[in-house]
Amino acid sequence: MQAIPKADLIEIFSSIQGEGLLVGYRQIFLRFPECNLNCHYCDTDFTSTATCKVEKKPGTANMADWRNPVTLKKVTELLSGWKEQLPGAHHSISITGGEPLLHENLLATWLPGLKALLPIHLETNGSLPDQLESLIGYLDWVAMDIKLHSQTGERTDWETHRRFLEIANKKHCYVKLVVGENTPDLELQLSADLVRGVAKDISLILQPVTFDDKVGVSTSRLLHMQGVISEIHKNVRVVPQTHRFMGVL
Asked: Is 182 helix (H, G, I), strand (E, B) or coil?
């Protein structure tokens, strides 16, 4: 029998989801290293390291170091213990990064075991549709970013985002749009057209950039943006990074 591959991880912790449609739900976060983009606003260090930070007790932010790479068996034993300690507390497991879909082959072997514990929520930059297609059967939720040039400094690949969303829409999904004070109306309109073109019931979340734990976009500008999008796609909400204000992981 072929051995299940080990994974380099950055963090394993239990916390409140601070972004998107599931804001306020408690999740177990598995943070994977590496990303294929280099967004200006990114607040996450996703460099692979020799050790993985793991909460000793869920929700305490008191971390221990596990040597990388870690085994699926060790992770599932940890998460099973957390479920016993806090029955019913966790909504799902959030697979996050970096960009988790860069680890497609490993996730294909890990996700069935993780899904046996809790539903799977994928956080992704929406740039790897082929990898998503191969894993969509293991997923319950997909939180997809549309990466805007005005914020990332990189070209927005609208067609790739469209293909990605069409696949994501096979499961519960929503789109996050990280915006800044300088985000032009045209980018908002193109994003709304894309989401509306796939399905009118997909939630589009306007997420203002955060600087020093403060929203980096004025209220008047956010309300203007919401108005621009709602003319095309009415299912739009403004949700900042609430975990940043609460001081949780």
From this structure: coil
Q: Which two tokens mark 184?
A: 């032009």
- How many separate domains does the chain show? 1
pTM (2 decimals)?
0.95
Q: CATH number of the domain that 74 lies in?
A: 3.20.20.70
Contact between 126 and 174 (Cβ < 8 Å): no
| Residue-wise pLDDT tens digits, 171-222 | 999 999 999 999 999 999 999 999 999 999 999 999 999 888 889 899 999 9
Domain with 32, as residue range(s), is: 11-176
Q: Does residue 120 fall inside a structural domain?
A: yes
